[in-house]
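Anyone up for a design puzzle?
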């Protein structure tokens, strides 16, 4: 069979071709052929310009994906969505779902609507969610409010016919990146110094030193280059890529001497050097972006500053990999509990930390100094976020007043997770290309893992190379350093 790269998607504009395609779709999906709503609506779908067919075929004519698309209203955003009412994807090429979805998403972007939604269990959705993004647009799984213009037709989003009332089915949602607004990084304008660790004496072909003193002298003169050419915009996605070793036009540092020492000594297994960098000198060359402050700014929909600080303490207790996985697990529990209660919050005694944290882990966290009240506040924040995500308000906007009296819409969603979805394909490829000893904690390919890594590393990013004259001093740290 011809490879998936040779397959092309196209919209069927000729009525006769559309009728043939719908007959083919009915044959490929027996459940449709047995659905009286679908059969009754086939004449409407065939003749109406509001329903369009998109097909993916190889050069030899083999069908890899075929689907029916229409338009619905997204009243919470005063916009529209493209709705996938039926989709078939060949079992031999599940990735063809991405090719098909890219064609529909391109239309959504051109129309400047909110995006494309599919029923959460539709064929091909597993491939879409695994991809993380389609043509740079994030793939989310969440309830989406929609309203049809015509009642009584077949819909994939309900067992009942369409209604003109507002409905909020749980969907696989290709979110139009252009409608999200900025995912900008936050500058660090307060720190007096930053730190960077290095302990490798030989990194062919870039350098080879006889000892750490020679290494320190070299970088105090030459400074530290960026990992890649080009500008660094400091946005959330660019920060995540740099953290995941997808090289960007920046040089990473930390606000913490101890973190820099941990990296310099490779976790205490070797001696290394920590360089202290004057913040004011570096800022004179361009803004310095702060991963921690950026995380706070783009996680407000999920948890506030105090909750992130509690999570940072959990990271110090469990380590970033286990802490990230714990947060991912707690978020999944919160989502499940909220669905069980129909989107309502559990108040008073109905809420239990024990629903989230097993006794042994609770004891470990308590022993490390994380009190029960702080832990409960964090978990309640996750449950509140889950409740918002299970209702139409997940798609709502608030209004921010800008200088000069202008306003802009701000989406009430977890921007950090959205940016992670956009970065995921590149992060996954980078991880696959790294040997085991270069896989850093937090590289478990979840947004929560990177949140944990950010809490530990306290990382900051330059706008370009770090010049030698910005390095104030260099300190040799012995092996076995533990902070």
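Challenge accepted. My sequence:
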């Amino acid at each position: 069979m011809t490879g998936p790269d040779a397959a092309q998607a196209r919209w069927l504009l000729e009525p006769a071709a559309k009728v043939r395609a719908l007959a083919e779709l009915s044959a490929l999906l027996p459940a449709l052929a047995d659905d009286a709503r679908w059969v009754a609506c086939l004449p409407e779908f065939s003749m109406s310009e509001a329903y369009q067919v998109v097909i993916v075929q190889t050069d030899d004519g083999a069908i890899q994906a075929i689907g029916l698309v229409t338009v619905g209203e997204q009243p919470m955003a005063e916009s529209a969505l493209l709705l996938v009412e039926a989709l078939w994807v060949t079992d031999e090429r599940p990735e063809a779902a991405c090719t098909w979805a890219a064609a529909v998403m391109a239309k959504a972007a051109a129309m400047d609507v909110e995006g494309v939604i599919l029923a959460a269990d539709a064929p091909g959705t597993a491939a879409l969610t695994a991809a993380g993004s389609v043509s740079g647009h994030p793939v989310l799984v969440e309830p989406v409010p929609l309203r049809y213009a015509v009642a009584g037709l077949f819909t994939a989003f309900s067992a009942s016919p369409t209604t003109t009332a507002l409905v909020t089915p749980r969907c696989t949602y290709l979110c139009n990146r252009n409608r999200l607004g900025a995912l900008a990084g936050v500058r660090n304008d307060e720190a007096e110094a930053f730190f960077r660790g290095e302990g490798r004496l030989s990194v062919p072909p870039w350098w080879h030193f006889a000892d750490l003193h020679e290494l320190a002298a070299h970088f105090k003169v030459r400074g530290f280059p960026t990992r890649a050419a080009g500008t660094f915009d400091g946005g959330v996605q660019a920060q995540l890529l740099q953290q995941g070793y997808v090289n960007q036009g920046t040089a990473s540092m930390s606000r913490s001497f101890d973190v820099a020492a941990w990296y310099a000594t490779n976790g205490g297994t070797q001696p290394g050097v920590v360089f202290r960098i004057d913040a004011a000198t570096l800022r004179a060359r361009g803004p310095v972006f702060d991963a921690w402050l950026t995380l706070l700014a783009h996680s407000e929909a999920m948890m506030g500053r105090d909750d992130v600080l509690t999570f940072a303490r959990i990271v110090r207790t469990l380590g970033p990999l286990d802490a990230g996985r714990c947060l991912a697990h707690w978020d999944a529990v919160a989502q499940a509990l909220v669905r069980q209660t129909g989107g309502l919050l559990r108040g008073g005694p109905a809420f239990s930390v024990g629903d989230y944290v097993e006794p042994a882990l609770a004891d470990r966290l308590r022993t490390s100094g994380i009190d029960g009240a702080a832990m409960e506040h964090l978990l309640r924040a996750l449950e509140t976020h889950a409740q918002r995500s299970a209702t139409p308000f997940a798609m709502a906007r608030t209004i921010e007043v800008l200088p000069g009296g202008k306003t802009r819409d701000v989406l009430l969603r977890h921007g950090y997770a959205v940016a992670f979805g956009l970065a995921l394909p590149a992060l996954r490829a980078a991880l696959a290309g790294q040997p085991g000893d270069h896989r850093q904690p937090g590289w478990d390919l979840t947004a929560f893992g990177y949140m944990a890594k950010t809490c530990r590393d306290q990382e900051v990013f330059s706008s370009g190379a770090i010049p030698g004259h910005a390095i104030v001093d260099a300190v040799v740290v012995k092996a076995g350093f533990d902070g």
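A detail worth pointing out: The first helix runs from residue 15 to 28.
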